[in-house]
Amino acid sequence: MAEEETKKQLTKKQLKALESRKSKKDREKTKELKRSVADEPAPRTNADGEPAKKKRKTRRGHGGKGKSGSQSKNRFIIFVGSLPKDITATELQTHFKSSSPDFIRLRSDKGIAFLEFDTEKDLSNIQRRMDVALLQHRTTIRDKTINVELTVGGGGNSKDRLEKLQKKNEKLDVERQERVRKMIKDSAKKAESKNTSNNNNSSSNENAPKTTNGIHPDRLKLIK
């Protein structure tokens, strides 16, 4: 009511100016509203025109399956050093064919390589294969003596990592020596058992009755 009474008291010119100011404000509000709508990102849709589901963010390296995802692999790695600079992965595969590593990562520029053994491929024989590979420590490739050592995860040459590596390899050397002694002992037992078996066979042949013209001696006595 008060606004209408105020309008009646104003002249036509003043009324026109007032309406013009109001319409200008309305236009600005409309522009701001349009601008805010335009700035909003359009919702993503799939092929059917339905709103697409948002992807959950995951930590890099877990493949969208969390910490215990099935894609995470457990691999054991063996370090090979002092290699010829121009060696190929095929040569390494041939040299370590008795242990059959699942993957070979070669750094020919540094003369090193990493043999990887995947538990998902061969869990039951992985320890034996790694032992066979480690037994090739100090063997030669192209007249070069190579180093074959168990390595630990991570990289760099930090003091803690080097100490951990040294302890692990020292323990491994002791275990390797025990395995070699056991292999020699088992081989000696097998050889002894084979010799005993051969001696028994030869003695039984000597004690067997001799035949005369294909006739058993006891049968020959009866004939006579």
From TrEMBL:
Return the GO cellular component terms, semicolon-separated. 90S preribosome; small-subunit processome
Compositionally biased tracts (Low complexity)? 194-208
Give any single GO term for biological process. ribosomal small subunit biogenesis
Extent of Basic and acidic residues compositional bias: 16-42, 173-193
Stretches of Basic residues bias are at 53-65
| Keyword ATP-binding on entry | no
UniProt entry keywords in alphabetical sequence: RNA-binding
* The protein, known as: RRM domain-containing protein
Gene that specifies this protein: TPHA0F02340
